[in-house]
Specification:
alpha+beta; 2 domains; 4-stranded antiparallel β-sheet; 11 strands
Amino acid sequence: MQVYFSFTLQKKDTMKHIILLFSLISFSIHAPAQALNPIQWSYTAKKIADKTYEVHLTANIQNTWHLYSQTQPADAINQPTEILFKKNPLITFNGKVKEVGKMLLFKDEKLKISANQYANSVDFVQVVKLKANVKTNVVGSVEFQTCDDKKCLPPKKINFTVALN
């Protein structure tokens, strides 16, 4: 009887260890994926003239990470940043989105690829003009990819709204 009890206790302890091990593995797999958000975006508008605004989409980039430019060399394989604006009959968009920041050219001689990228921060600026003295919003999305020296995260799309007052 003691042998049976002893065996049951060991089997029960083994099951606890197996459940604990699977729980830890599951947590370690899911926790980093949820925690990785190396780009923090902010959206603002600055009035620069009568009915004219600069819309700023600012990316603050964590250390060791980088964000790709809207324009890439022909041999680039990563997703360039893409900013799309929804049509608004009260607004005209003047020119293209400008990038304000220190662009870095990344080259990997082994893979024979290169990329235009930013570290620390970059400000994407679009000039817009209101057709009348009204309050409205600039609405759109930014799709981007970010990488560090070891991995790239899948492209991510974020919607934004910026008030023009």
